[in-house]
Automatic annotation (TrEMBL):
Sequence motif Histidine triad motif, residues: 100-104
Organism this protein belongs to: Devosia elaeis
Single annotated GO MF: hydrolase activity
Full-protein interval shown: 1 to 116 of 138
Name used for this protein in its record: HIT family hydrolase
Lineage, uppermost ranks: Bacteria, Pseudomonadati, Pseudomonadota, Alphaproteobacteria, Hyphomicrobiales
Keywords assigned by UniProt, alphabetized: Hydrolase
Length: 116
């Protein structure tokens, strides 16, 4: 499968669509998920154009993973969540719906099912 630059996250990265941005640097944009699975659900979207983890440049992955950790720590502190789920899906059968690499940081609250 190839990268299609008309995907929603590519448009957000280009500023063609709005988002609730919480951070941006040379490597990635961090924004709130529009349909959060829990309070504080945050997405890290690397700027390098890859469809998902399977076709991504290893150097681009290395560049963004420290930010993923920073966001996970910051979201946990800001939400007082009991845990953090890190999720990342590759291709539609695995649950991917937006075909530009991204990482989900999903706060988990004891006794509260995700999606509730
Ligand atoms: P995937 O299943 O591809 O890993 O997840 C895509 C995520 O992007 C979903 O959690 C969905 O709610 C989120 N999403 C879809 N469209 C938009 C959008 O336009 N803006 C934002 N901020 N999130 C989106």
């Amino acid at each position: 499968m190839t990268y299609d630059s008309t995907n929603i996250f590519a448009k957000i990265l280009k500023g063609e669509l709005p988002c609730h941005k919480v951070h941006e640097d040379d490597n990635a944009l961090v924004m709130m998920d529009i349909f959060p699975q829990s309070k504080g659900h945050t997405l890290i979207v690397p700027k390098a154009p890859s469809r998902n983890l399977l076709d991504a440049d290893p150097a681009a992955i290395s560049a963004v993973m420290p930010l993923v950790q920073r966001v996970a720590r910051a979201v946990k502190a800001a939400t007082n969540a009991d845990g953090i789920r890190l999720a990342q899906f590759n291709e539609a059968p695995a649950g991917q719906t937006v075909f530009h690499l991204h990482f989900h940081v999903i706060p988990v609250y004891e006794g509260v099912p995700l999606g509730a």
